[in-house]
Design goal:
Length: 560
Amino acid sequence: MGKHNGKARASGIQVGSALVNKARKEGKGQHGSHGASATRHTTEAAGRYGMQSVLETNDLNEIMNMADLANRDFAAERGESAVVISTGAAVSDLDRERDAQARAIAQDKNRHRLRIPRRPKWEKGTTAEQLDATERESFLEWRRGLAQLEEEESLVLTPFEKNLEVWRQLWRVLERSHIVVQVIDARDPLTYRNTDLEDYARDINATKASLLLLNKSDLLPDEARTAWADYLDGQGIPYIFWSAKLAAADAEDDSGESALATQQVEDSRIRLLTCEQLLDVFQRKAQDAVAELGHQHPAGDAASVAQQRLVVGLTGYPNVGKSSTINALFGSKKTAVASTPGKTKHFQTLIISDDLLLCDCPGLVLPKYAHSKAEMVAAGVIPIDRLTDVRAPIDVVLQMAGIKQVERVYNISVPNSERRLPTASQMLAAFAKARGWTTGAGLPDEARAGRQVLKDFCDGKLVSYRMPPGHAQTGIAAAAAPAQSMPAAADAAGLPVANPRSEGDAAGGADGQSAGQPTCSSPAQRDPQSGQTGAESPADAAPGVPGSADSALGAEGAEP
């Protein structure tokens, strides 16, 4: 006999049996003849993520999400489970089994299938419910296509955005904007630029121009900027070198001396623009797009197009500096900035002047071919604070930044670093010991040390960058002397001149690009006049419908 609350209880009666009996009785009452089977099934619907960015999910959540997109009820019968042995490997493991040349051929062959999802066509008579259903169906087909690409061609993709609500924000920004600005990290432009996004913008309207804004360009020496300017000019790609950090500091300087305006550079192409200069470029390019759009309309429509406020859409990966750019342009904090990817949840419109409006899109991780998830972590795309294993990303940092730079920046000495590149564990142990970071067992706290190094690498404290195709990858430079020639700067700082990645780095992509990408941003004031060209879609006009503008921005245009 057992006792519960001082009362005798027959042995064999388990604690909680009353709850089970109650649930069984309620099940019979609610489901009638189905009450017997009510306790043998789970019908929990797939969880809705709202506007939270979703890059990776486990297999169970993935099944539930796909069932939710297809509007199908999913039921799992208890007691009828089966063991499934997964053959899925880490991002880098599958690629190691394939010859690099064969992988490159397969990637080029299927590059056209690696597209961002398109918004389905709609008409004025389309209801909000119909549009929501077609968007879900189209997004599901896109997800299935990428899954088939991985399965049939044995190609591996980076983690990418899997939340439809986040993609809907991109669709609306592209539809509203006259020009689309991709904010990219100047340290690795080809990784963050997405050509399909430019194609999608032109599919919406042939006059919708694209522009690359190379943020964090202050981390590049003049030689690297010149090399990238030559490459982008040769490709016919419009670009601007920009540093949101320096522009913000310049705007806050009350001395009246603008460091950006008086910078000494021989090549005007690589000059870092001030806030006023950048806004002038935005306005001029938007005016050109509107003028070209007016030529494609009858006279009456052309006049209405000319009266609209110019809209500049800002897109890009997380952590590339979209919010920092907006704050620099406004001269005050309009959007929240964080080092954690995915800070901006909704697209937001911000009025620059009576003629110009910025439309900020949440950071999106786009699908790309990949070798290593660790490179994405090192680039800041995947949140660093959520990592459980920091060693693989730290190996990437050591290969890209060099151990000499790490030792100089943190004033540490890693044993035997002169002979060979140390492992991540060796470097982290030395760093943690120097800072006095230990675990409860008294061992060096490698996790804390690793997260700090990764954050410093993303912020530019540890300097590394890529050169354009056709140039030697001398991508390690001294942060203190960006104006020196690269060999001289490296010698002055005691850094290696050659990038270790050019010596057979297994984590590099087949085309010489890394798989990394970055995050950022948040709320701001809303523009009561959206400035959108054309008619509003049913989803934009109908409040309360998933994916509608009202559900994203609120009926009054305020944050929900």
